[in-house]
Amino acid sequence: MLAIPWGLTLAQIEEAEEASELIGNITVLTVINAILSLFLAYGLMTAVQALANWLSERVPRRFRLIIKQSIPFWKGIILLVLIAHIGNLFLDISEQNLLALTGTIAVALGFAFKDYVSSIIAGAVALFEAPYRVGDRVTIADHYGEVVSYGLRGIQLHTFDDDLITIPHNKTWSEAIVNANSGSLEAQVVTDFYVDHTADPQIITDILYQAAYSSRFAQLKLPIIVVMAEKPWGSHFKLRAYPMDIRNEPAFRSDILRRAKAALAEMGVTYPKVPAVVSDDDD
Amino acid sequence: MWWVSLRRRLADWAVPDPYVTTVEKQLSEAIDNWQTDPEASNNLVLFSSPVDDTDALLERVIQSAIPEGIEVRQPLSWHQRPEDVQSIAEQFRQALADVQAEAKDIDTEVDDPDTLAQRRVMIVMPPLEQCFLRCIGGWQGVEWLRDTVGQQPQYFWLIRCNTWAWGFLNRVCQVGAYFNCQVRLPELDKAQLASWLIPFAQRLQTETDNQAETKDEDGDGERDFEDWSWGTLADLSMGSAAVAKALWLQSLRLREIDWPETIVALEDHWPVPVPLQQLAPTLPGLPDLEAEDNYVIHALMLHGPMSRSHLALSLGQGESVVQVRVQMLRQAGVIQVNHQGLSIAPAHYPKLCAQLSNNNFLTGED
Question: Which single residue of A3, A146, B208, B339 has CA 20 to 30 Å from A87?
Fold first, then answer.
């Protein structure tokens, strides 16, 4: 028989009885089952991540991104199954219990886990809107790198400096996401060149085109463009080209620069003379 | 040892007839049009794969199919890229000047239909893949040729090029817009491969049957070459004669009971002393290729046979760096070395095509 504290109304007593039915049948076996399920799910998610990463680096390039992009999907499936299983173990979800449960969860989330849940929801939305996917090159809040991991709360960016930056999904609510390749292997790489006003633009343009076409990293199926702009101190050329694999972006740019600079030097092209700027810090 | 000898003999084996008839037909038509129609193209481009050798084919076509009265000039005899690639355009200019000096009597007035038939000089150029290198200034020779051919309608130009090099040159200097009369080597089917290689196999059989010591224990001296897997060979080789030759050679085996007590080196003119068995053809497996290997292979596809220094220059890397990858690929049998330099092993060509295509490279089929 349930002990009734003094001062409770009949309605409150009924609610207490219903709540006690919401969490029922907690035994040692169900607790062990839940703990094992947690470990199993964690192991599976780690294994999926590791397997997908391993496999994607061994298959031809065109399949790499497809495999990497499937990681969030498989992790989501594992997570959903885990939540359903644990809910089934501990909760008796009736219509009234569901109302009580959602009320409790809403209060808890409103105070304690607001940002965390915001990130989880943003992550789920991002799965469909795809502002970034695993394997993409993105810029988020001054950070540029390859998305190497898509977790429950956020993504991890691998930068050219070999740093790993974790960014929560809820940044997508407020920050601009710049995606360089959006699921494809290629992304445009812009290489800047500066020459003196006296340099012949036609010769420079020819050399830059040839530098891009000569590079072993160049994607020959996509267009290569040279654009020019005049500045007070000289001419500014921009070479827009695509590497076959966006991962080769630094190597591609370096290769183009090296080839072009050698040819420009051979042609006697002069670089702009920018007057030295002396700041107070130099004193 | 025997395999090397057989490979040499097979390399000297006749060019497949379908290749000859296809090129003959197109060349005759193109020359005929050039001699009758002032608007007709004055060139023909012959496409092949990077592993096909068109020298022997061209020799046979020139011997058998050139219309009477046509004078064939090959002003540049090299089949290998000159050491200084920047000099190619100058060599082309000099070659044209030599041809013009030899043929002073050619009437350059092309508006008069009566004089069209007097145009008789056909200039055969070296393979186009040997006329450029993927570096700054490396395809000036091809650009000169592109601009010159149309300005010299009194000459007919026969140009050879592998499909991979053509794809590259078409993007960097739009050669397709200038050379639009083209013929591609046909893909050999099952019957064509059988009729081409069976005579070679029969010749080997005759040699071994003539050896007194060797007898086929089964008593079936006449092996049935017709029943062999020619269809499989045609599929695996993608209809390429060079690939088919390599795969067929790899399918030959020596039975253990026929194994001679002492094996001596087989000179090219010596008969094979024991019968060889034909197994079903298979494509050899590729080793695990690294990303850098793909660039080396792509450069060799693009340029055909090339020296190590040219390979390094086209890749934009040091020779010592390239040499490491070359050595690995040579040991794996993916590339081979001959008097022309480094080249792709024909037996690996089909799988390498798929490998590069899957890795986002521009291939000969794009």
Answer: A3
Torsion, Cα B87 B89 B93 B96, to 10 degrees, reads 110
Closest by Cβ to B136, choosing from A62, A211, A219: A211
The answer to whether B135 faces chain A, any CB pair under 8 Å, is: yes
* Residue A217 belongs to domain with CATH number: 3.30.70.100
ipTM above 0.85? yes
Decide if B132 is inside a domain: yes
Among B136, B303, B315, B355, the residue to mutate for chain A (most A Cβ within 10 A)? B136
Tell me which residue range forms the domain holding B262: 2-11+188-278
Do B176 and B201 lie in a common domain?
Answer: no
Residue B174 shares a structural domain with residue B35: yes
- Which of A210, A245, A259 is opposite residue B360, by nearest beta carbon? A245
Residue B366 lies in a domain: no
Backbone angles phi, psi at A166, to 5 degrees: -95, 125
Per-residue pLDDT band at A36 (split at 50, 70, 90): very high
Question: What's the total number of domains in chain A?
Answer: 1
List, as ranges, residues 163-202 from B with C-beta within 8 Å of A.
167-168, 171-172
Determine how β-strand B182-184 pairs with β-strand B43-48.
parallel
pLDDT tens, residue by residue, B194-217: 999 888 888 777 666 665 444 444
CB contact under 8 A, A245 and B358: no
Is A145 part of a structural domain of the chain? no
Q: Assign 3-class secondary structure to A30-57.
A: HHHHHHHHHHHHHHHHHHHHHHHHHHHC
Q: Percent of chain B beyond pLDDT 70?
A: 85
